[in-house]
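User: Second chain of the day. Same drill as before.
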Amino acid sequence: MGEIMVNDQESITAKLCSFARAFHSNYGDNKIYDDYLAFDLMGKKQYEEMGQLIENGFDAAKFDNKKWFNQKRIHDAVYTYMLPIPLSRISFAGKELEAFRKKYGGSGKKIQYVICGAGMDSFAFRNTDENLHIFEVDHPDTQKYKLERIKELGWFLPENLTLVPVDFNRDGLGEKLLESGFDSSLPTFTAILGVSYYLELQVFEETLKIISELTNGQSQVIFDFPDETTMEPDAVARVKKLSQITASLGEPMVRGFSLPEIEGALKRHSLKIERHESPVDIQKNYFAGRRDKLKAFENVHFIMAKKES
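Assistant: Same format as last time:
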C-alpha cells in the first residue's frame, strides 16, 4: 500500500481530466471526442493512479502499486463526475478552433494557438496544420514530465510546437510568451480551460487582460466557467459532490460567476462574447440522444469571445 505522489506541478484534477480523455478513448461508445493519444502521453503509471483514486473514493492514501483498478467499479463515478466537463469542453474547443482556422488560416497564412495550462494535452501531436503555431503554457515541472514521456514514447516535438514554461509565482505570462516567439500581429486563438473554477474573478480576469493586450482584432479566446448556482445551498447534488471531491484533493472551487460578471470582465479588456453555450446548449450539442449516463453538468458554461478592434 502507499499514497499517490505528485512529483510535478500538474494538479490532481488536471490529471483526472487527462484520465477522463484516455478512459473515454479506451472504452467509450459513440465518442464525444476521441483523444486517442491521451493514454500514451499520460502513461500507464499516472493512468493507474487516477483510476485507483476514483475507485478508492478519491482517497489518495489508499493507492496500491501492486493492483490494477477495476474498470466496472469506477464506471458510474467516471460517467457521472469525471467525463462530462472535459469531453464536452475539448469538443467545444475543437469546433471553435476549426472555425477559427478556416476563417483566418489557409493558403499558407500563419495563425497561433495558445493553450493555457496545457498539461498532457496531445493536440499538437494530432494536428496536421503546419501553419498553426501552438504555444503550450504550463509550469516547468509539468512540462519536464511531459518531455520525459515524449522521449520515452520515441516521439518528436513538432516544429510548430513551442513549450512555454511559466511559474506564475515568479513569471509574467505575457513576457514569457513574447520571449518564446509569440507574434502579436498574427490571429491568435487562446484556450483557458478548467481554470476559472479555482480562481476569484479578478485573478482570472488578469489572464484575460494579458491575452487581450497581446493579441489583435483577429483573435479569439475560449474558456469554461461555473455559474452562480455552484455554491448555493440548494445546488444540484452532483454539482455539490464534485465540489466536495475537488476540495478533498486540495483544489477547492472558489465560487461561481454570473453571466453579467463574465461579460463585464471581458468588456473591460476589449473582449466581446460571440458564443455562449449554457448547460442546456451543452446537453443538446454534445449529449443528446445518448444511451449511457453522460449528461451536461448543470452549472457549467462555455464562452467564445472575440477581441474587438
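Residues 1-9 have pLDDT under 50 and may be disordered.

User: Great, on to the next one.
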